[in-house]
Specification:
The chain is an alpha+beta fold. Helices cover about 25% and strands about 55% of the residues. It has one domain: Nuclear Transport Factor 2, Chain: A (Roll), CATH 3.10.450.50. Strands 2-1-6-5-4-3 form a 6-stranded mixed sheet. A hairpin with a 2-residue loop joins strand 1 and strand 2. Helix 1 runs antiparallel to helix 2. The relative contact order is 0.19.
Length: about 140
């Protein structure tokens, strides 16, 4: 388990990132992400440079209305590397329609020049690990 001071500090940074997405303060979100940032999710794996990340955020067709983090766990891998993992419930508007997503996320935070930055973020949509709860396209 991470030291309590790191766990609280990084959970605050993770929450700040989610709030930045909710309020569409993309510069705040980008300030917390490493450059480039590795992102892993349902669409694959990407190494995203800051300018590409900025363009993605501004051109997104969905909007985060609300979120709730739960079951947060932290593990310190070294003095300057901490992993956070948690469940999240996201309330979104996607293509004009309300959508609720349940997922598990993780972020790997690295301290560079005295400041924490998110070097890797993952998202796994909750559900049957074999996809039996999803309809074929």
């Amino acid at each position: 388990m991470a030291q309590k001071s790191h766990e609280k500090e990084l959970l605050a940074l993770e929450t700040r990132y989610w709030e930045a997405l909710k309020t569409r303060d993309f510069e705040q979100a980008l300030a917390l992400a490493d450059d480039p940032c590795l992102v892993v999710g349902p669409t694959g794996v990407e190494s995203i440079a800051r300018e590409t990340f900025r363009n993605m955020m501004h051109s997104s067709t969905h909007r985060l209305r609300n979120y709730e983090l739960d079951n947060v766990q932290a593990r310190e891998l070294g003095d300057d590397v901490v992993v956070l993992a948690y469940k999240v419930r996201e309330e979104l508007t996607v293509d004009g329609k309300p959508v609720t997503v349940h997922a598990a996320h993780s972020s790997t935070w690295v301290k560079r020049n005295g400041r924490w930055t998110c070097a890797l973020h993952t998202e796994s949509i909750a559900g049957d690990p074999f996809g039996r709860d999803r309809q074929a396209a």
